[in-house]
Amino acid sequence: MSAKLNKKRKLVVLISGSGSNLQALIDACSDDEVNAEIVAVLSNIADAKGLQRASAVGITTKVVSHRDYRDRQAFDQQLAAVITPFNPDLVVLAGFMRILTPTFVDQFMGKMVNIHPSLLPKYAGLDTHQRAIDAGDKIAGATVHFVTPELDGGPPILRGEVDISNRDTAASLASKVLSVEHKIFPLAIRWFCQNRLRLVSDKVILDGDELGENGLLYNNH
Ligand code: GRF
Fold it and tell me: Residue 104 maps to which CATH number?
């Protein structure tokens, strides 16, 4: 491998909650499955459990509370001001529960990914698991996508599916979906860090080939 390819990519991870996806990424980086270093974890929630996960392994953490800013624009400006000095190759939204302004998103276009707990384009926004159950869906899942200004609307990279059983509740389904999230998110980030994955205008390119509009389907087996 050339020196350039071997160089660890820098990730800044944004969270609002438990940080189980962050943990999967911390583990994947420390196992060298993902050729990257998490240089900072930022949260808008001061007591987000994910911040403890980061501190426990010596990752720098920062809190930017949305409550301290008069509007989204001002909050996002501060968020960008905190992120930029870390000079990240990729900004990772791992359960970051704030809607980002187009100005913020434009600064990180092609360099920011999100994981959403549904098979997009179905169920953008909140309550995805209950909505899938209420609709009588037989399959649920999660989608990793590049972030564009449209909420949960950026081009999909990779999705993972799980079966919905008739005993599933929103909570049981969330836990099944999370376990697939922990596989697909590090995998997509691994590809990005290997320079295999990129966004070209609104198309996702993996290994030189354009992915279809739903991205790739993760094969669990
Ligand atoms: C995940 O379900 C993710 O898809 C969504 O928020 C949740 C975050 O979970 N965006 P965690 O904080 O990574 O445990």
Answer: 3.40.50.170
